[in-house]
Specification:
The protein is built from 14 helices and 17 strands. By secondary structure, the chain is an alpha/beta fold. The strands form 2 sheets. Strands 7, 8, 9, 10, 11, 12, 13, 14, 15, 16 and 17 form an 11-stranded mixed sheet that branches. Strands 3-2-1-4-5-6 form a 6-stranded parallel sheet, with helices on both faces. It is elongated, with a radius of gyration of 24 Å. The protein binds NADPH dihydro-nicotinamide-adenine-dinucleotide phosphate, the ligand N[C@@H](CC=O)C(=O)O and sodium ion. NADPH dihydro-nicotinamide-adenine-dinucleotide phosphate binds next to helix 1.
Length: 427
């Protein structure tokens, strides 16, 4: 049996896991695909780096082109990250008829349509299961498992780093900075962790899920994004008091043919299954018109869970190679994109206000909500040690346009000292 030769771009957290699985599970893998799978060449940035995996140094190169241009190599596994240079490597590899497996959500969210079009032209596979929610097979689920349904809502904790941070802040009272450092040491965070904590990584993943779920070309600029860097321990505590958990949630919502898509810290009712997803775990809740509610759970980051998805994609490519059907499975979005306006986007909100502690304040505040047609679910006032009082308000579903008007009005309302926090509420 002629071995299938694989070129690996990157030998960091994920690349190391890929080698461990390909070597450790070789017997099982080759029995599934009918031939051995061999990692033939590996591109790294630094040849001298001490690695925590034994690798034959003759396989290493610091030039990705040595891997891509090797005529013996059938499949390129890209786990080095990056956008611009990496895109060129992948396009060249496809041009040369090589199949691609990638974990790179940055690239797929920004240039996925170009890459998939090139793959189709060249009859090559491009699989990217590890790019969203690490070890959870969610991309395969949306493409295959739900091919028969109309997806109406996708709600996900799709960033392990931020879920790890929020969980430790909530359960252990740990500091944001300390937990971020720990997430970096554990290999969960991106090389620039700003993309994790500011929500960009999750936004990229939601753009990919939205494209697959709604069959339209969701671009990164369609996703409204805010991250967790301004979430305080106090906010988390207040959320808990009211029966919510704070989560960085991606929400893609469709009504008829219009959709909205966002990533933001969200207070999730404790009774919702996604509220109990903790640590580096991710979960993706999918609501299909026919199937109803479903939810998928697993590790969203880290060496072995992520590598599991990468190697599963590799197996899929090799099976297709054997069947001679590569390049037939790309999902081409075909629907015209229609984004909801601020008037059409509607959800519950939580507000924490610092206000003057005197008679009539509450009435003036509720009057503003009434003026913009925002009705309230609950209002809780607690005096604190200063002259101010704190008011926690949860609204019923309100349009984003009306909520913006309320907040704008509050900026100039003399009894409000400070709008301390505003969060979306789910469940
Ligand atoms: N870590 C995770 O949990 C997850 C990561 N991903 C994605 O997987 C990809 C890899 O992530 P991760 O393994 O964490 O990243 P790491 O930073 O740990 O590893 C990157 C690897 O790529 C090599 N590399 C980087 N740039 C180049 C270059 N220009 N030429 C040659 N080699 C290069 C590095 O070399 P050297 O070792 O010499 O520095 C390193 O081996 C990213 O796209 C990431 O977003 C997806 C899901 C989960
Ligand atoms: N940095 C990412 C890694 C996986 O995509 C995360 O924390 O989820
Ligand atoms: Na996945």
């Amino acid at each position: 049996m002629k071995p299938v030769k694989v070129g690996l771009l990157g030998l960091g957290t994920v690349g190391t896991g890929v080698i461990r699985i390909v070597e450790g599970h070789q017997e099982d893998l080759s029995s599934q695909v009918g031939s051995p799978i061999v990692i033939e060449k590996v591109a790294v940035r630094s040849m001298d780096k001490v690695r925590n995996i034994a690798i034959d140094s003759s396989k290493l190169t610091d030039n990705p082109l040595d891997v891509i241009r090797d005529p013996e190599i059938d499949v390129i596994v890209e786990v080095m990250g990056g956008i611009d240079g990496t895109k060129e490597y992948i396009l060249e590899a496809l041009e040369r008829g090589k199949h691609i497996v990638t974990a790179n959500k940055d690239l797929m969210a920004l240039h996925g349509s170009e890459i998939l079009a090139k793959a189709q032209e060249k009859q090559c596979d491009v699989f990217y299961e590890a790019s969203v929610a690490g070890g959870i097979p969610i991309i395969r689920t949306l493409i295959e498992g739900f091919s028969s349904d109309r997806i109406m809502k996708i709600m996900g904790i799709v960033n392990g780093t931020t879920n790890f941070i929020l969980t430790k802040m909530s359960q252990e009272g740990a500091s944001y900075e300390d937990v971020l450092k720990e997430a970096q040491e554990l290999g969960y965070a991106e090389s620039d962790p700003t993309s994790d904590v500011e929500g960009l990584d999750a936004a990229r993943k939601m753009a990919i899920l939205g494209t697959l779920g709604f069959r339209t070309n969701v671009e990164l600029s369609d996703v409204s994004v805010s991250g967790i860097s301004s979430v305080s321990k106090e906010d988390i505590l207040y959320a808990k008091q009211l029966g919510y958990e704070m989560k960085l949630l991606g929400i893609a919502d469709r009504q008829d043919e219009q959709f909205s898509i966002s990533v933001q810290p969200t207070m999730v009712k404790k009774s919702h299954p996604i509220a109990s997803v903790n640590g580096v775990f991710n979960a993706v809740y999918v609501y299909g018109e026919a199937v109803g509610e479903t939810m998928f759970y697993g590790a969203g980051a880290g060496e072995m869970p992520t590598a599991t998805s990468v190697v599963a994609d590799l197996v899929a490519v090799v099976k297709n190679l054997k069947l001679g059907v590569n390049g037939l499975k790309a999902i081409v979005p075909y629907k015209v994109k229609k984004l909801k306006s601020d008037e059409e986007i509607s959800y519950k909100n939580f507000l924490l206000l610092h206000v003057e502690d005197k008679a009539g304040v509450l009435a003036r505040i509720t009057q503003v909500f009434a003026e913009y047609d925002v009705s309230l679910e609950s209002v809780v006032q607690s005096p604190n040690e200063h002259t101010d009082a704190e008011i926690m308000i949860v609204t019923h579903d309100a349009s984003q346009a009306n909520m913006n008007k309320v907040l704008q009005h509050f900026e100039s309302l003399d009894v409000i000292r400070r709008i301390k926090s505003v969060y979306r509420v789910e469940g």
